[in-house]
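Encode chain A's predicted structure.
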Amino acid sequence: MKTNAKTRIRRRTYLINKGFQVKYILSYFILVAVGVLTFSLLFSLFAADTLSMIYDNQPLPIGSTPGLRFDKFLEATWIFIVLGAFIIIVYSIFLTHRIAGPNYRFRRTLESLIDGDFNLHVVLREKDEAQDIADAFNRFIVMHSNKLRTLQHMSDEIGRILDRVSEHPEFIAELASPKASDASRHIEQIQILNQRMTDILHAFKTQSD
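Encoded structure for chain A:
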């Protein structure tokens, strides 16, 4: 029951990264507002030299077209302007949610990788953006997890060989003997494992000191 409750709460949290989402919501809103103001300005410029008469069950007012028309425009459409602004905000929240969610998961994944935890992968919702980036992240994690696991196995094997050698000091004495078959075999195994580890490590490109 607690898991389901947490799942429901998580699904209702649309402002995952408030700073990121609010910035883009304001950007969309400002863009639309600039468009409306530009339209109003152009309308005023083109109609500046004209006069209009408006009959509204009252004495006919006569005045410049921009002033009269703009007042009537606001009276007739203010509710649609408010509704449109609300729709823009809601749409922006849903749209940025599909971006902020992956952004949050990528950041958490990178923090885990920095801490040395490769036992994870990025899971995005079906409609989230950046699915291709998530796939690349997961391929990176799987590839390096396999390489690290291989290095760990080889390191463990070297440790076991060294333990066997340390438990039998006669192996060291055999190195000076022409019949140093067992000791030579263990050393050869260590050399092979070390070469494999070197090959894996050399596949990485690191920054110069």
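The first strand starts at residue 51 and ends at 53.
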